[in-house]
Structure formats: structure tokens, C-alpha cells
Write a structure and sequence with these properties.
It is a single chain. This protein has two domains: about 250 residues, 3-Layer(aba) Sandwich (Rossmann fold); about 180 residues, Glucose-6-phosphate isomerase like protein, domain 1 (Rossmann fold), CATH 3.40.50. It is about 45% helix and about 10% strand. It has a five-stranded mixed sheet with strand order 1-10-9-7-8, with helices on both faces. Strands 3-2-4-5-6 form a five-stranded parallel sheet, with helices on both faces. Strand 5, helix 7 and strand 6 form a beta-alpha-beta unit. The chain binds 5-phosphoarabinonic acid. 5-phosphoarabinonic acid (PA5) binds next to loops.
């Protein structure tokens, strides 16, 4: 059996950081009936298929579909895969790429990349960046996956217009289908097609549906994340196995036995009762850096709400500000604040037991001598020592800290973490008493952007 991640909240308990900052056993006990009720409500919504993210990993057919499509596109040996999308349509892929492809992947030779294309996730409309991407990814040698559930997001549609224009000039309209894959919401009967759906129909493009009950930030295990993952040769079955393993653990009704519920409870109690308005994710591994970015979105966009869940309080102003940091880099940037500044954070440290590479530090040589403790050691050992130093210092300064320990970063363990955080967010939505699945304020910016661009109506 594949070894999974281990989750600990012990450093956020009162026994570790005191009653003022850590959760006490009686506070957790008092929350048990609330969590039990929320669990029943979430299970009911899951069985009514209101929220599809829970069960994406059971859809084995999609694996065959994305893999077949990826194989078809790989025949022409494309040099680049460019994902056009934003928010939930982009962050999951970025998290998977950073975690599961080697560092500096795009700088490796084609052989070192196993014949797979380089990958660029374009989640902004900065003209300089987009121009440069188009320059270094010639359309003839590139496949584009445009992803937008709504099909109406200005940023993504603008990117698509540019890409289609360039492709038509380079390969001709009839060859668009060899370079462009569309991932969008399914066309509902009688509805007017969105621009992506219309393009699919007009040019006979390969396309994937985003299930209607799966929101952007919960979509990484749908075709949104899976098609790019397949093109890049990730182990999709292992991703699904990681989700299934966590689904089992996060289906437990009991607060004490459910890692997602426990973590949600710590964040909620810390936020409500102990002034912990900030939730920091601090991975001690470059590979997990963008997982923290993905977390930042799901936590912010799901919980940051003006209204309570039943809409009766329109001045609820719920949420906890998620922050991403990186060990050890931010020990020399953020940690001074985290240790001595306002005690307003709960910090989750992500640790890795076995890195995929081991880098020895040489013994003292004729040219350079460092401190004796470094000679003959490894960067792996230094990384572990730094992580332990941070966790111990946080606790000594009464700063609540939770841990997620990876035996190794791989498809299984990364999927476990992402799935757990999705369930944690769903439970946190209930505890914070907000609708975790909408994003009315984001929609408001989308409308205003269109208006600012001169759209009518
Ligand atoms: O999580 C969400 O729903 C959002 O972040 C969306 O993913 C984002 O706004 C992009 O929307 P769309 O996929 O419709 O282009």
C-alpha cells in the first residue's frame, strides 16, 4: 500500500501553545455536535450531487478520455503545452506541475522531459508576459488548452482570441483542432453557446466538459487538471488513488477521527475565539510551493463572504486571510514577524521526509572550510533541521502550528493533500456559516471589467 501523508494538529493545541492561542480539549468537544450536524448536511448534499468534487475520483471513464486525447496530440510531438485559464482553471494545474515535474522542467532537454512538452500556465493578461510566451512558443509547435467553466471570463476569452488569430495565421483555421483543446461547461439544452462551446462546434475541436456541480477552485481532479496532467505524463491513477484514500479518511463523521474536520475546527476556533485571522501555509519543499498558492485561493474565495449561509445576515464579513510562505526561504523574510509580531496566525508546515534527490555537502576541502556541522552532511538533513527549528520556535513562542508530513511528494500524496483541503474547506464553510461554493464578489469584478471595456448591458 502506498504510504500517505500524516496530519497533526498537536502544535495548535493548548497543551503546546497555551489556552490563549491553542485549542483546548473542551473547546473541541463543544464543537463536536456542530461538526456532526455539518457533516450530515454535507453528506446529504454530496448524495444529492450538489457538490461534485467529492466524487470526481470515481469517474474512471475520464481517465481514458484525457489519456486518449493526450496520446493523439503527442503524435505531432508538440514542444509546448500552454494552458489558458485563470483562478480555479489554472491554479490546480500549476500546483500539480510544480509538485510532480522536476524543478526547472521547462529548461530540460526534450529527452530529459521524456519527450513531453514544456508547460506554461497563463493565468494573467499582462501584455509583456503574454507577448513573450507567444514568442517562445511558436503556434505550430504548441498545443493550447483553453479552460473556462463559464466560457465568459474576459481574461481567458481575450487570450483565446489572440491564440486563435495566431494559429489561423500559422496553420490555418482547418488545423485549429490539431492545436487547441477546450475545457468548458457543458452546453445546456436550449442555451446560447458560450464562445468556447461555439468554437468547438465550428472547428470540430477536442473538448472536455467541466461538470456543472464542480466549481473552479474544486475542479483540479476533473478534466480541468487531468488533461494537462495526462499530456505531461503524470500518473493519473495514482492521483485518483490519493483522492480515494483521503475520501475514506475524510468521510468519518467523528471530528476527532477526520483530519479535514480537525483542521477546519482548529482554523475556525482560532479565528472566532483567539484572534487568528490569518492562515499561513508554509511548505518546506519547493515542490509544494504552488500547492500553497492553490490553498490560498480555495480558502480565500470560499470563506471570504459578506453574508451568512442562509442570507439573513448581510454584514457577516466572514473569512480568514490565507498566506503562502516557503521554507526555508521565508525564515529570512517572514519568520521574524510570525515569531514576534502579532499572534494572529495559524501556521501549517508541510514537511517532506524523503526528497526525490539527495545532495551531499562535501567534507572540508583545500579552498573552503565551513562550520564542521555542515561538512559531510546533506542539504536534505539541513532542510529537516531548519523545519524542526521553525516548528519548535513557533511552539516556544506560543504560535499555533499544524503539520502535514509527506513520506514523499508524488501523485498519491499530493492528491491526498488537495482532496483533504477541499473537504476541509467545505466543512470550514459550514463552521464559518457561509456558502463556500459561490463567489459573488468575483462575479461583480467580472461584470465591472466588462463594463469598463465598453460592454453594453
Ligand atoms: O473558483 C472559481 O470558481 C473561480 O476562481 C473561477 O475558477 C475563475 O473565476 C475562472 O472562471 P472560469 O473557469 O469560468 O473562467
Amino acid at each position: 500500500m502506498t504510504q500517505g501523508i500524516r496530519i497533526s494538529i498537536s502544535g495548535a493545541r493548548s497543551a503546546a501553545v497555551g489556552r490563549e492561542h491553542g485549542v483546548t480539549p473542551s473547546e473541541l468537544k463543544a464543537l463536536e455536535p456542530v461538526v456532526a450536524q455539518a457533516h450530515r448536511a454535507l453528506r446529504a448534499e454530496r448524495s444529492q450531487k450538489r457538490y461534485g468534487f467529492y466524487d470526481l475520483h470515481k469517474d474512471k471513464a475520464i481517465l481514458g478520455e484525457v489519456q486518449r486525447a493526450a496520446k493523439g496530440f503527442s503524435k505531432a510531438r508538440p514542444q509546448n503545452l500552454v494552458v489558458l485559464g485563470i483562478g480555479g482553471s489554472a491554479l490546480g494545474t500549476t500546483a500539480l506541475v510544480t509538485a510532480l515535474k522536476p524543478p526547472y522542467y521547462n529548461l530540460l532537454s526534450e529527452e530529459e522531459r521524456g519527450g513531453r512538452p514544456r508547460v506554461f500556465v497563463m493565468d494573467n493578461v499582462d501584455p509583456e508576459t503574454f507577448h513573450q510566451m507567444m514568442r517562445i512558443c511558436p503556434p505550430k509547435k504548441t498545443i493550447y488548452n483553453v479552460i473556462s467553466k463559464s466560457g465568459g471570463t474576459a481574461e481567458t476569452v481575450a487570450q483565446l482570441l489572440i491564440v486563435v488569430d495566431q494559429l489561423e495565421k500559422a496553420v490555418g483555421a482547418s488545423a485549429l483542432k490539431e492545436h487547441l483543446v477546450v475545457t468548458t461547461g457543458a452546453l445546456e439544452r436550449g442555451a446560447k453557446p458560450n464562445p468556447l462551446q461555439a468554437l468547438v462546434k465550428k472547428r470540430g475541436l477536442v473538448s472536455f466538459d467541466v461538470p456543472p456541480n464542480v466549481g473552479g477552485r474544486f475542479s483540479v481532479f476533473s478534466s480541468v487538471g487531468l488533461f494537462p496532467a495526462a499530456v505531461l505524463g503524470m500518473d493519473l491513477k495514482a492521483l485518483f488513488a490519493g483522492c480515494a484514500s483521503m475520501d475514506k479518511q475524510c468521510s468519518r463523521a467523528s471530528l476527532q477521527d477526520n483530519p479535514a474536520y480537525l483542521r477546519a475546527a482548529v482554523e475556525f476556533l482560532g479565528s472566532r475565539d483567539k484572534g487568528k485571522s490569518i492562515s499561513v501555509m508554509l511548505p518546506y519543499a519547493d515542490a509544494l510551493r504552488d500547492v500553497a498558492d492553490w490553498y490560498r485561493q480555495i480558502w480565500a474565495e470560499s470563506l471570504g463572504k459578506r453574508c451568512n449561509l442562509d442570507g439573513t445576515n448581510t454584514a457577516w464579513y466572514a473569512g480568514q486571510t490565507p498566506v503562502k510562505a516557503l521554507g526555508v526561504t521565508d525564515q529570512h523574510s517572514q519568520l521574524q514577524l510570525y515569531l514576534e509580531g502579532p499572534n494572529d496566525k495559524i501556521i501549517t508546515v508541510l514537511g517532506v521526509a524523503a526528497f526525490r534527490k539527495r545532495v551531499p555537502i562535501p567534507k572540508a576541502g583545500p579552498s573552503v572550510k565551513g562550520p564542521a556541522y555542515l561538512h559531510g552532511s546533506t542539504l536534505n538533513k539541513l532542510m529537516a533541521a531548519e523545519r524542526k527549528a521553525t516548528v519548535d520556535s513557533l511552539k516556544e513562542n506560543d504560535r499555533p502550528v499544524m503539520a502535514v508530513n509527506f513520506p514523499q511528494v508524488n501523485e498519491f500524496t499530493v492528491a491526498e493533500l488537495l482532496y483533504m483541503l477541499e473537504v476541509e474547506t467545505a466543512m470550514a464553510g459550514r463552521l464559518f456559516d457561509v456558502d463556500a461554493f459561490g463567489q459573488p464578489a468575483v462575479e461583480q469584478i467580472k461584470v465591472l471589467t466588462r463594463r469598463n471595456m465598453g460592454a453594453k448591458g
